[in-house]
Amino acid sequence: MESPALSALLPVVFLILTGLVAAKVDWIRPGAVKDLTNLVFYVLTPALLFRTMATVKLADLDFSPIVLYFVAVGLVFAGTMVVYGFTTLAAARALGHTFSNNIMIGIPLVGLAYGQEGLVTLLTLISVHALVLLGSATLVFELAQARQSSAQGKPQALGRTLWQAAKNSVIHPVPLPIIAGLLFAQTGWSIPLVVDKPMQLLGQALGPIALVLVGVTLAYSKLGSLIKPAVRIAAVKTVVHPILFLGVAWLFGLRGVPMAAMALAASLPVGANVYMFAQRYGVAQEEVTASIAISTGLCLFTVPVVLLVLQKLL
């Protein structure tokens, strides 16, 4: 019988390998990486995020499992910032420790494992995942960047720093389409078909192109000493994160399929959006790239174990 974990993870591995091979045979050259990153970050990502949020009716969603999920995320994120200091490098690692590949891997995997009930919980998470985590991460990145500039002899007033960080965390290719889509959804309108169809196609292209781009970057990266930190990110994401979530779920009495769906989401590999942030802020790009590939490979072994544990808990 085909494993749900393999069914969801192997296409991701294949896409990363496709990008790696394309770079090795010189079909995609190093100079194109930045342009492809801009395509993903400024065109494909906003299309997917706006369209996803444009159908979310907040009043219809059960957020109790999601709140506990973000409690665990917050503990991992804050713990990472404490360990590594308040820098953009720490923010990149913290995002890698907490941002799951929920769409490309999570949806098929949770659907196969827990059916419609599990998907409802996961889609509720997806509806706010980017808004909460990427929005918060943007603010942290902006504040850390301002702090680093101040340390380098370019200080500015605290109020101005906070205002600029808050402004940049909203007027940004990630939070802005999320907020716009969420506001649009509350009007009750639907996106006209002539606009919706192109946006759908752009959004569908995001996952595959982002993963191919991970493979391309991997091909041009000199990993060497970066392997250890990349393995650490992968281990925290695929092992520590789900264990911590299960502890939080047990503490607050969350049980059943909603608990299992959230635990499985926590155990997923690092999402490609983390690489987009590393590129945008020019920090830990090769480390994050390697962590995405390593965590995806690691999940071929850890996700089946998580599924077995969850089977015992249900």
How would you characterize the overall build of this protein?
The protein has 314 residues and is mostly helical. It has one domain: Up-down Bundle (Na+/H+ antiporter like fold), CATH 1.20.1530. It is 81% helix and 0% strand. Helix 2 packs parallel to helix 7 and helix 4 (88-98) packs antiparallel against helix 5. It starts with a helix and ends with a helix.
The fraction of residues assigned to DSSP E strands is under 5%
The CATH class name reads: Mainly Alpha
- H-E order: HHHHHHHHHHHH
CA distance, first residue to last residue? 22 Å
- Overall, the morphology is globular
* Count of helical regions: 12
Kindly name the structural category: mainly alpha
Number of domains: 1
Q: If you consult CATH, what is the topology?
A: Na+/H+ antiporter like fold
Instruction: Outline the biggest β-sheet.
Output: none
Which radius of gyration do the C-alpha atoms yield? 19 Å
Which runs of at least 5 residues are low in confidence (pLDDT < 50)? none
**Averaged pLDDT, please?**
84
